[in-house]
Amino acid sequence: MITTVTLNAAIDRTYYMDRFSINKVNRTKRIISEPGGKGINVSKILKILNINTVSTGFLGGLNGQLIKRLADEKGIHSDFAMIEGESRICLNIIDEYTNQTEILELGPTILEREWIGFKRKLLELANKSTYVILSGSLPKGLLTTAYQELIELVQQNGPRAIVDTSGQPLKEALKAKPFMIKPNIDELSEITNRPLQTDDEIMNALIELSHTGVSVVAVSRGSDGAMAAYDNCIYTISIPKLSVVNPVGSGDAFVAGLVSGFYDGESFEKSLIRASAAGTANALQEKAGDLSLEDLNSLEKQMSVNQFSFTK
Ligand SMILES: Nc1ncnc2c1ncn2[C@@H]1O[C@H](COP(=O)(O)OP(=O)(O)OP(=O)(O)O)[C@@H](O)[C@H]1O
Ligand SMILES: O=P(O)(O)OC[C@@]1(O)O[C@H](CO)[C@@H](O)[C@@H]1O
Questions:
Q1: Whose CB among 33, 97, 133, 280 lies 3.0–4.6 Å from 162's, allowing a Cys bridge?
Q2: Which residues pair with residue 220 across a beta bridge?
Q3: How far is the CA of 111 from the centre of ligand 1 (A)?
Q4: b/e per residue, 5-31, with b = 16+ CB within 10 A?
Q5: Are 254 and 40 in contact (CB under 8 A)?
Q6: Centroid of ligand 2 to alpha carbon of 8 (angstroms)
Q7: Any idea which ligand is nearest the CA of 167?
Q8: Ligand 1 neighbours (beta carbon < 6 A)
Q9: Which domain CATH number covers 205?
């Protein structure tokens, strides 16, 4: 089983409109509401890939009830800790010129006793899991060491921990040596404290991080594909140019694709192809955390990986 953790779950609401302008009255043409937050998106993709997954984290208030109902409707098995605060709404505004604007609410405040209760729940789920994927921002009330603490708890009990977050929580998480991290370029640059522009600069950052004890460091680069360091090798993958519909959640689809490859016992190379194809297939859909298996299979056939080794 693969457990996903979304500490700051959300109703992902997408507004489609003709034109979005600031300082004007804007009217929507169409609205989509989805259960969201990065970990839930990962579970949505794993479910499509037919992999046994449970989604956990915190849910609260009426928004929390709606997230649970929408997840249930998708057949996603969930086991969330209920909290006093209200889960958030994340807004994605897409206009006809394909401009895309995201407005992400801060989310609820987690109380000390809710955090303690959640760790007990996660321990139970970790005992039944092969991988635990921890994704997204931290809600208020949690320390920036929250992921570090959860990674230690998970990995001391068997499963491999994967973390996809940013800023200080990611820097702290590295201290617990998670099995895998999946930053994008901005996040990678943040944790290495330097700008990363060229392939060589990115590759050196990956090598540096792999020396800290993280087994898989995969950086996703939007339409420029991805690069990864694993087992003393650097892997690069480029992707076909396509016109995308909504790239929100592509990073989550990438994580789901990569971990599903490991879970199915595929080679690293094949897993990376599945990850990139899943990320791109997600960008072809209207909803975050969605893909068509037909797109996935066809994209996998169009992608190839370059690999070379580096010495420790
Ligand atoms: N515009 C695009 N065209 C084609 N593929 C894309 C595009 N954007 C993303 N992808 C695919 O999805 C993968 C992950 O995307 P990206 O690097 O944007 O993740 P991210 O920044 O973590 O995204 P998010 O936080 O919105 O989930 C890429 O490696 C690529 O395979
Ligand atoms: O605020 P966070 O947790 O960093 O990101 C939240 C979020 O933008 O990420 C997902 C896309 O990756 C969306 O489902 C969700 O709304």
A1: 133
A2: 184, 226
A3: 34
A4: bbbbbbbbbbbbbeebeeeeeeeeeee
A5: no
A6: 9
A7: 2
A8: 184, 220-223, 225-226, 239, 242, 244, 247-252, 254, 276, 279-280, 283
A9: 3.40.1190.20
| Ligand with an atom nearest the CA of residue 248 | 1
Residue 282 and residue 45 in contact, taking contact as beta carbons nearer than 8 Å:
yes
> Relative to the alpha carbon of 281, which ligand is closest?
1
The CA-atom distances, in angstroms, between 140 and each of 7, 71, 118 are: 10, 24, 15
Residue 184 φ/ψ region, left for φ over 0, alpha for ψ in the -120 to 50 degree band, beta for the rest: beta
Q: By three-state DSSP, how is residue 130 classified?
A: coil
Kindly report the pTM of this predicted structure: 0.97
Q: How far is the CA of 225 from the centre of ligand 1 (A)?
A: 7
**Ligand 1, residues 242, 254, 276, 287: which to mutate, most atoms within 8 A of Cβ?**
254
Q: Taking CB atoms and a 6 Å cutoff, what residues make up the pocket around ligand 2?
A: 8, 10, 12, 36-38, 41, 90, 104, 136-137, 248-249, 251-252, 288
* Token pair for 65: 């009830």
What total number of domains does the chain contain? 1
Query: With 0-12 CB in 10 A as exposed, 13-18 as middle and 19+ as buried, what is 42?
Result: buried
pLDDT tens for each residue of the chain, 312 residues long: 999 999 999 999 999 999 999 999 999 999 999 999 999 999 999 999 999 999 999 999 999 999 999 999 999 999 999 999 999 999 999 987 768 899 999 999 999 999 999 999 999 999 999 999 999 999 999 999 999 999 999 999 999 999 999 999 999 999 999 999 999 999 999 999 999 999 999 999 999 999 999 999 999 999 999 999 999 999 999 899 998 988 999 999 999 999 999 999 999 999 999 999 999 999 999 999 999 999 999 999 999 999 999 876
3-state secondary structure (DSSP) of residue 15: strand
